[in-house]
Each structure stands twice: as structure tokens, then as C-alpha cells.
Amino acid sequence: MFAENIHNMARELIKAHGKNPFDIAEGLGIKLILNYDFKKLYGMYAVIKRKRVIILNGNLGRGMQKTVLAHELGHDRLHRDLASNRVVHDVMLYDMTARPEYEANMFAAELLIGDADIFELMRGYGYNTEQAAARLGVSPELVTIKLLSMQQRGLDIPGVIIPENNLFEKAAE
């Protein structure tokens, strides 16, 4: 049920603001700042004086910025209460050991990758995870998270091998 809720939340945002995370952030009234001084930090989410702010590493490529922004939007939708007391820093984008990071990653996967896209590429064309990721302009990790979400939502994905990773299971508990 959890994966279904995140999926629906992402679909509602797409319906209201389009699929581009930059347009979604603007539509939600979130202040977006590009910081070119970040070395290892991908991005951060904060609520400062009741204003929602996402700061992205300006040195990242546009595709990675979209992924990080989608992840930070996940924190906005799912963890705003956590950010009210502290800043949520993301140094490791695919950190699946903490539940909030797992949830934000699943949100990003749902926002950036449509179910139909996965079905077409993996079932229709026989792409593997890496090939599908390259075609979609996202990382293989994000495709794996999307596949796990689809599986948790009860979608039948025959012929698709979902990589096993116990970190996903730990975070989902």
C-alpha cells in the first residue's frame, strides 16, 4: 500500500504541473537555488521560516540535477516535518539504509519513470536495467527502485529480473 500511495502522489503532481521536476518545484512554490560551491553534496531540502527551499549542486549535469530535485521533492511531499527542525542533506543519493531516503528515492523513481515506459522498454524491447536507464536518461539504481515499486504495487512484470538488494528490504521495513 505504501508504494501505491507514493505512486499516486507522484501522478497527481505530474497531472497538476507536468513531468519536469523544475516546473513542479516552481508550481509548488518551492524556492530553488543552484549552489556551485558544493563538492560532495548533491542537494538539500529545508523549511526556513515556513518557506520551502531546495538547494541543488550546480556542478551536476542537468539529468542528475533532475534526479536530485525529484528526490528532494520526495522529501517535501513525505518528510516536511523532518525538515522543519533540520536540513535534509543528500550526499549519497541512493542511500537505502534510512527509511526517509528510501521513500524519497521511490518518489523520484515514480516521478521520473512511467510504468508504461518500463513495460515498453523491458518487456517490449527486452532491455535490461542498464539499457532502460540509458534510454530513459536516469541511473540504473533509479530503474531498480521503480521496478521494486511496481512489484510492491502488485504489477506483473514477467521477464524482468529485479536485482536483489537487501538494503532495499531493510529500508522498507
Walk me through the topology.
Layout: H1 2-17, H2 21-27, E1 31-35, E2 43-48, E3 51-57, H3 62-78, H4 80-85, E4 88-90, H5 99-112, H6 115-124, H7 129-136, H8 140-152, H9 166-172
Parallel strand pairs: 1-3
Antiparallel strand pairs: 2-3, 2-4
Helix pairs in contact: 1-5, 2-3, 3-5, 5-8, 5-9, 6-7, 7-8
The 3D shape can be described as globular
The average pLDDT score comes to: 84
Could you estimate the helical fraction of the residues in percent? 55-70%
**Could you tell me the number of beta strands?**
4
Radius of gyration over all CA atoms, rounded: 16 Å
Number of domains: 1
Neighbour order of strands in the largest sheet: 1-3-2-4
Q: For the report, how would you describe the main beta sheet?
A: 4 strands, mixed
Strand residue content = 5-15%
Distance between the termini: 13 Å
Number of helices: 9
Counting helices, strands and paired strands, the structural category is alpha+beta
Structure, described:
With 173 residues, this protein is α+β, with helices and mostly antiparallel strands. It has one domain. Helices cover 57% and strands 12% of the residues. The protein contains nine helices and four strands. It has a four-stranded mixed sheet with strand order 1-3-2-4. Strand 2 and strand 3 form a beta hairpin. Helix 5 crosses helix 8 and helix 6 (115-124) packs across helix 7. It starts with a helix and ends with a helix. Mean pLDDT is 84; it is low at 165-173.
